[in-house]
């Protein structure tokens, strides 16, 4: 009876492992499909999604299971944030995950800083352009007003000359 119980429990563990493996495989195929959709039309060339692409595009979260799943895929050794199986020890894993999260936060802060700096530069350029545009408009308006004033003065002079001719 004991052997039957053990085989039952081991077979249920095997089923769980197979089920987990099936879920992981399904998840991975869905992620690859989504990444290929994001790539858009590539014409006659094949759409190739590597582990590097998956990790680089999904670097806003950390999940050890996902990284373990991607570990064997071609190209994963070229990933910067990639954590190899050798360095995934219980104590080191939590340390590595915290370090990875810290690096991700720093990366986001740097990106936000760059975006803020770029927005400031764009605003400065726009204000300079607006100021120059305003100066040009003012110069055109002044020139037009000067021409109108000169024309009006000439007309007034002609009227005075005619009036004087009539009087004389």
Distance between the termini: 143 Å
Oligomerization state? single chain
Instruction: Report the portion of residues in β strands.
Output: under 5%
H-E order: HHHH
Biased composition (Basic and acidic residues): 139-168
Region (Disordered): 1-21, 113-168
Biased composition (Low complexity): 1-10
Task: For the structure shown, list the relevant keywords.
single chain; 168 residues; mainly alpha; 4 helices; 77% helix; disordered N terminus
Describe the structure.
- The chain is an all-alpha fold.
- It has a domain at 1-88.
- The protein contains four helices and no strands.
- The protein has helices at 2-39, 51-57, 64-70, 90-167.
- It is rod-shaped and about 130 Å long.
- Mean pLDDT is 75; it is low at 1-8 and 82-88.
- Residues 1-21, 113-168 are annotated as: Disordered.
- Residues 1-10 have a biased composition (Low complexity).
- Residues 139-168 have a biased composition (Basic and acidic residues).
């Amino acid at each position: 009876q004991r052997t039957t119980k053990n085989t039952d429990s081991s077979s249920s563990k095997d089923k769980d492992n197979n089920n987990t493996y099936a879920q992981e495989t399904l998840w991975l195929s869905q992620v690859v499909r989504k990444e290929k959709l994001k790539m858009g039309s590539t014409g006659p060339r094949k759409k190739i999604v590597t582990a590097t692409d998956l990790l680089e595009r999904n670097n806003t979260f950390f999940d050890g299971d996902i990284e373990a799943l991607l570990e064997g895929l071609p190209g994963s050794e070229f990933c910067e944030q990639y954590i190899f199986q050798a360095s995934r020890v219980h104590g080191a894993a939590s340390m590595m995950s915290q370090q990875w999260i810290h690096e991700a936060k720093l990366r986001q802060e740097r990106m936000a800083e760059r975006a803020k700096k770029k927005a400031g530069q764009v605003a400065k350029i726009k204000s300079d352009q607006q100021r120059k545009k305003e100066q040009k408009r003012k110069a055109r308006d002044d020139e037009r007003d000067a021409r109108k004033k000169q024309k009006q003065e000439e007309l007034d002079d002609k009227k005075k000359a005619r009036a004087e001719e009539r009087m004389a």
